[in-house]
Fold Imidazolonepropionase.
Amino acid sequence: MTERCDLLITNANAATMDPSIPGGYGAIEDVAIAVTGGRIVWIGPRNELPDCAADDVVDGEGCWITPGLVDCHTHLVYGGHRASEFARRLGGESYEEVARAGGGILSTVRATRAASAEDLYRAAEPRLQALLSEGVTTVEIKSGYGLELDTELKQLRTARRLAQHYPVDIVTTCLAAHALPPEYDGRADEYIDLVCEEILPAVAKEQLADAVDMFCESIAFSVDQCQRVINCAKELELPVKAHAEQLSQSGATAMAANAGALSVDHVEYINNMDVAAMAENGTVAVLLPGAFYTLKETRVPPVESLRASGVCMALSTDLNPGSCPIASLRLMMNMGCNLFGLTPAEALAGVTRSAARALGLCCSRGVLRAGLRADMVLWPMDTPDQLAYEFGALKPAKIYFGGRNVTAG
Ligand code: NIG
Ligand code: FE
C-alpha cells in the first residue's frame, strides 16, 4: 500500500462479508482500514497495519463497519400512490383481483404516464433519501410503469438523474414487460413485439438500462413471452432478471436461470427443479419479504433448500406503490429472518455481497476488501447480529461513499 493515504479508520471492528474470511460476517476485530482515491487500499487487524500517514484519521469509537448496503430490486420511480387499494385489500380483495379489475400496476401506469419528469423526480427523492439514511450506497431502479416507449424512457432517465444528485450508485433495469397496457388488451404477443422491436432497442441505444426484467405470472406474461424478451435482451447484450413464482408456479424460474439470468426475484413458489437450475447457473434468489408481508402471502420461499443447494440469497425492499410501499432495507433484514428463516448473517450477506451479485457487481461491491470501492457504514453496535435484530433506533454513525463521508446531518 502507499505510505500516505486519504483516510484511516481504526478503533473499530469490520463485518467485511468477505467469504474468504471465516465466519458468517467475515469479521475482523480491532480493524484498520486505509482508503486512497476512493478505494480501500489496506484492511486487516490493526496490529498488522504497515506504517501509514493519513490526511484524515477517524476514531471508529468501537463501531462495527459494514459494506455500504445494496438494495437490488426497487421500483422507486413512479407517479401517484395506491392507498385506496390497500384499503380494498384490507377489506378482503386479493392483489390479483384488484389487478384484474384494472387497478394494481395499471393504476400506477396511468399516474406515471400523466406525471412530468420533474414530478417523478420529486416524488422519488424522499424514497431514495429514506434508503440512503440507512446506509444504502447502491440502488437498483426499474421502469415498468410506462409500458410505452416515452414513459419507460422518462422513468429510466429519472433514475439516472437521481444518481447525479445523490451519493449513490444507481443501476437501472428496463421492466417494460411488467403488465399488459390497456391499449393492448387481448394482444399480449403484439405488446411483446413492441417491447422487443421498439422499447428495448431504444433503451439500449440511449444506454438507459443495465439489465432487462420481466414479470412472469398469470396476471402478467407467460413463460414463452418472457423467453422472447430474454432472447431480445441477449441480442442487445443486456443481462436479464425476472420476477417469477411470486403468486404461482410456472417454470419461469428454471427457464430464466437456464438462460443465465443474474437473479430471479420473489421465488415463493419455486420447486426443486427451479432450485437446481438456479444452483447450476449461479442465479441469485432475490427474496422480497416486504411484498410477502404486504400481500399477506402464506407461502414462504424454500430457504432451506436454497441454502442446501448453495444458491445465493439476496434480500431487497421491492419498494413499489403496490406490493411493498416500504422504503427500509433494514426492516427487510428483520423480515428476512422473522418471516423467511434467514440467519442474521445471511440477512447481512443478502443486502451486501449477494445483492451486489444479483446486479452483476459481485467483484466490485458488497464486500470490504483491498482494491474495492470504499462504500462503508459505521454502526454503533456491539455485534453485527443487531442489524437484523433491532429496528428504529440503531442508525448509521457514519456513511462513506467512495471514501467520501456522506453522513446526513
Ligand atoms: O415486484 N410483481 C410485480 N411487480 C411488483 C409490484 C408492482 C406493483 O404492484 O405495482 C413486485 O411486487
Ligand atoms: Fe418487483
